[in-house]
Specification:
The chain is an alpha+beta fold. 40% of the residues lie in helices and 21% in strands. The protein contains 8 helices and 5 strands. A 5-stranded antiparallel beta sheet has the order 2-1-3-4-5, with no helix packed on it.
């Protein structure tokens, strides 16, 4: 009997621990509002950066276009599944400002903001060009966990890909 109670307690505590690292709809709304509404978007997300990511941020701070890039990262991807499991997670895609595809069941463990796929494909057939901003929850706290820039910014502030450059000026 003690063994059964132990396993019930263990399973329920594991389920609760996983739940704390899952995004709720209200948290997504707050994250989206902060990501797009601030005049210093990068400053907003920088405060949430993981320790590992903080070392990489100075490179992006030198990019005088980073706030503009973030305002144009209007495609949002929600990863639903087991936290950290990219292989079996299902992706739900939305476009700001209409967030209609947030999954109501399961664990959304990662949220990413990207430049729209149609723009990324103008610069790269696979859609890899662009900027990607990732967020996860660690111990129930939203953290800015990854940033990836796959489009080259020239010293004059323009982008190498003309389609990307035009989109950023809109």
């Amino acid at each position: 009997m003690k063994t059964i109670l132990f396993f019930i307690f263990l399973c329920s505590s594991c389920a609760f621990a996983d739940e704390t690292n899952c995004f709720k709809r209200g948290e997504i709304d707050s994250l989206v509002t902060g990501f797009f509404s601030s005049s210093d978007n990068f400053g907003y997300v920088k405060k949430m950066a993981t320790e590992k990511l903080k070392n990489k941020l100075p490179y992006y701070e030198e990019n005088n276009q980073i706030n503009n890039i973030m305002k144009h990262a209007t495609q949002i991807i929600f990863n639903r599944g087991n936290p950290g499991d990219y292989e079996s997670s299902k992706q739900f895609i939305d476009n700001y400002p209409n967030i209609n595809n947030f999954p109501n069941n399961g664990c959304v463990w990662k949220v990413s903001f990207l430049t729209p796929e149609k723009i990324r494909k103008m610069c790269d057939d696979d859609g890899a060009a662009g900027y990607f901003f990732g967020f996860i929850k660690i111990n129930g706290e939203i953290k800015f966990s990854s940033i990836l820039g796959m489009e080259i910014l020239r010293p004059d502030g323009s982008f190498v890909c003309k389609g990307f450059d035009r989109y950023m000026k809109e």
